[in-house]
């Protein structure tokens, strides 16, 4: 009987450890990573840089010094042009973030895939 309890305990312990590794991998900082952003209109790259700054290849971004990001666990928030457009997303896998955005012109969905 003790063997059965030991096997059950070991199985629960191993399953629990595996899922915590998956969660911690998703919680890793995006700092320094580059992603391909895409929505129904545009595709461009975003790099999450030091001090909450964003580097982007967005074709209409004429003022890159006022673009910022922050992360809380698996949640990401970034803004362009001093908050003119705001983006909220969630890290779904190590290589995929999905979310929604809004500006005075409307709301839309987007996704990003890891480049590096």
Q: What report would you give on this structure?
A:
The protein is an alpha+beta fold and 116 residues long. It has one domain: Lipocalin (Beta Barrel). It has one helix at 2-26, and strands at 34-38, 43-48, 54-56, 68-72, 75-80, 85-93, 96-103, 106-114. The protein has an 8-stranded antiparallel β-sheet with strand order 3-2-1-8-7-6-5-4, with no helix packed on it. The model is unreliable at 9-15 and 18-23 (pLDDT under 50). This is Lipoprotein.
Number of domains: 1
Number of extended strands: 8
- Please report the first level of CATH classification, the CATH class: Mainly Beta
C-alpha-based Rg, rounded: 19 Å
Query: SSE string, helix = H, strand = E?
Result: HEEEEEEEE
Strand numbers in spatial order across the main sheet:
3-2-1-8-7-6-5-4
**Helix-residue proportion:** 10-25%
How much of the sequence is in beta strands?
35-45%
Number of helical regions: 1
First and last CA, distance? 51 Å
Helix/strand/pairing category: alpha+beta
Biggest sheet features: 8 strands, antiparallel
Average pLDDT works out at 85
Low-confidence stretches: 9-15, 18-23
CATH topology: Lipocalin
Described by the principal axes of the CA atoms, the overall outline is: globular
- Under the CATH scheme, the architecture is Beta Barrel
Protein name: Lipoprotein
Organism: Kordia algicida OT-1
């Amino acid at each position: 009987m003790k063997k059965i309890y030991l096997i059950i305990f070991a199985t629960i312990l191993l399953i629990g450890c595996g899922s915590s590794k998956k969660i911690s991998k998703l919680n890793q900082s995006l700092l320094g990573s580059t992603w391909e952003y895409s929505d129904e209109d545009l595709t461009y790259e975003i790099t999450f840089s030091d001090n909450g700054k964003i580097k982007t290849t967005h074709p209409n971004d004429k003022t890159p010094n006022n673009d910022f990001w922050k992360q809380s666990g698996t949640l990401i928030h970034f803004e362009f042009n001093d908050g003119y457009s705001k983006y909220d997303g969630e890290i779904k896998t190590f290589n995929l973030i999905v979310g929604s955005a809004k500006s005075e012109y409307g709301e839309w969905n987007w996704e990003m895939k890891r480049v590096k």
